[in-house]
Amino acid sequence: MRSMRKTILVLTSTFPRWKGDVEPPFVYELSRRLLQHYRVHVLAPHAPGAAVEEVLDGILVTRYRYFFTAWQNLAYHGGILANLKQNPWRFFLIPFFVFAQLSALIRMLCSRSFDLIHAHWLIHQGLVALMGRYLVKSAPPLLCTSHGGDLFGLKGSLFNWLKRQVAAHSTAVTVVSRTMRDTLSELGIGQNRIQVIPMGVDLQTKFVPPQNRPDNGSILFVGRLVEKKGLNYLIEGLPSILEKHPTAMLRIAGDGQDREALEKLSSGLGLEAHVQFLGALDNELLPALYQTADVVAFPSVVAADGDREGFGLVLVEALGCECATVVSDLPAMQDIVIDGTTGLVVPQKNSGRLAEKIIQLLDDAGLRKSLAKAGRQYVVGRYDWGIITRKYQELIETITI
């Protein structure tokens, strides 16, 4: 007899490959919390060293192979778009990737019973889910979530048409910020069909304020080392900061395709003694890193190809730890930071203004403290996983009646 619990099939290209993986955990975290109410089965791409099928913290995970194991490098390590930019030959893998995902989806829909498909990203997962629903007549409803890279990073009339088709034929669509809702609406999708539900952060037990924060001139950046994160502008502004605060130290947590270029920029400016590249860190280590920072900077920009942040999840983590923050003026950041109240906002791609605001915070401990406290209060009431999970549960229930 089938369990009375509804079963959700999650399609994603970003998911931990194993316990303790450094890949972004937001799809995993949402899936884990939905286990309180549903059975969750995740379909994700395989990678070298990962199990083809396993149970990860109660989540049944199936990973589909799409090429020879050693060459399965289209997903993970910064995401599909970043990997394609790094090595254009990987475009060759896309047909195999899509076909393998679609084949795995069809097999699962024909052999098991699901109440909902939740596809993360319009392209590829949303598109594959849409094809699967046409090919398997008894397929369940489709909830599609866009996280930003698919919406902003894939340009041109063909991609816009595909995004419009996926969104229009999904049972429901969620995006992680208001600017994404507006962008999707410009493609012809009615705003009444789009819900803004960001991913969440554990603001109760994990990303919390420290008992005592050291005053040591520490500046922190957390994120992938890719163009849209704007880290080069922070590094270029560091000499001005050092003129006022000669012992300041910039710590960089993250890895990506631009790391080598950023290391060369740092050494070219003579900053080796003041910049630490920490690499990609286990997600469990991040709270302690935030808790020892005086200022956390998020200088995100619109990349040359139009790609930009969909939502500043690491910004929410920093504010949860009561960090004073400086962010660029992208709409996704201003969804979270109110200039002068919960953080400071500067024009994007402006190293001088960025350095000026960081100096202002390093000079004024009282301002750092007031912004940080207001910032935590703001995000706790909006982005804690308990709130986000509840919103998704309510939406799922309306879809699967």
Explain the overall architecture.
It is a single chain. With 401 residues, this protein is an alpha/beta fold. It has two domains: 7-200 and 384-399, 3-Layer(aba) Sandwich (Rossmann fold), CATH 3.40.50; 218-383, 3-Layer(aba) Sandwich (Rossmann fold), CATH 3.40.50. Helix content is 41%, strand content 16%. It has 15 helices and 14 strands. The protein has an eight-stranded mixed beta sheet, with helices on both faces. The radius of gyration is 21 Å and the shape is globular.
So what's the oligomer here? Answer: single chain
| Total helical elements | 15
C-alpha-based Rg, rounded: 21 Å
User: In CATH terms, what is the fold-level topology of the largest domain?
Assistant: Rossmann fold
**What is the terminal separation in angstroms?**
20 Å
Inertia-based shape: globular
Q: In the CATH hierarchy, what is the superfamily of the largest domain?
A: Glycogen Phosphorylase B
Chain-averaged pLDDT? 95
Strand-helix topology:
Layout lengths: L6 E5 L14 H9 L4 E7 L7 E4 L2 E6 L15 H7 L7 H18 L4 E5 L1 H14 L6 E5 L2 H4 L4 H13 L2 E4 L2 H9 L7 E3 L21 E5 L8 H14 L4 E5 L5 H10 L6 E5 L6 H6 L3 E4 L14 H8 L3 E5 L2 H4 L9 E3 L4 H13 L1 H19 L1 H15 L2
Parallel strand pairs: 1-2, 1-5, 2-4, 5-6, 6-7, 7-8, 9-10, 9-12, 10-11, 12-13, 13-14
Antiparallel strand pairs: 3-4
Helix pairs in contact: 1-15, 3-4, 4-6, 8-13
Which tags fit this structure?
401 residues; alpha/beta; Rossmann fold; 2 domains; eight-stranded mixed β-sheet; 15 helices; 14 strands
